[in-house]
Amino acid sequence: MPTDARPVSVLDFEAWKGQGRKITSLTAYDYPTARALDAAGVDCLLVGDSLGTAVQGRDTTLGVTLDQMIYHAEMVARAARRAFVVCDLPFLSYQASRPQAIRSAGRILKETGSKAVKVEGGVRMAATIRAVVDAQIPVMAHVGLTPQSVRRFGGFKVQRQAEAIRADARAVAEAGAFAVVLECVPAELAATITAEIPIPTIGIGAGAGCDGQVLVLHDMLGLLDDFRPRFARRYAELGDAVRDAAARFNADVRSGDFPAESESFR
Ligand code: KIV
User: Is 111 annotated in the active site?
Assistant: First the structure.
């Protein structure tokens, strides 16, 4: 349980960078899970558009809509007492224009209770990030492997263009982002960026030198047996636990063992 139950604010991210205090973040998509993560003291709940792959069973995040993100973020934000809730802006909810980005980000804050939005892209998105921040909406940026660019990258690949990624991280910090996710970049590069920029870096597949770490919940809980990213440590095998519980339920119903007398209304 967290020792400090005060709700996390955007100011804490800046303070934690200064103190060298590691930031923890997990994705969340629903109320009961978000409650458990919040109670465990996770600093930041990310309603990621990994919703598309982790929850909806899609191959990419491209099909996720703004309305779907809002539906899930609202449940997560209702559960969070201490954790800071960030909601992804999904594909094509911000790329078309700055007014579109402000409207989409504004809907997320107004309709869900999230405290910030996340935007993929570095140099090419810096002006958009600036516009959203100027509208008083905190932005977490996301550079390196940005899953919404999967078609342009030609797949989900480690990003190794060191100078371009450093420029991206600097650009989003200058544009006013309060933190930046570094996804699938070499550990040395992530550590260099972390030392170079004034905002916290939250790594995923980016080594131990970042200011914090984020994982997709379904990866760390072992919920999907056909997807096992190399960088995601499994803290549980819930896929096996669910299969085992369902198989026992099947067997109990078919054998007449469930429901027992005491488990029925009279
Ligand atoms: O959508 C998501 O869950 C994310 C994390 C992988 C950082 O962007």
Answer: no
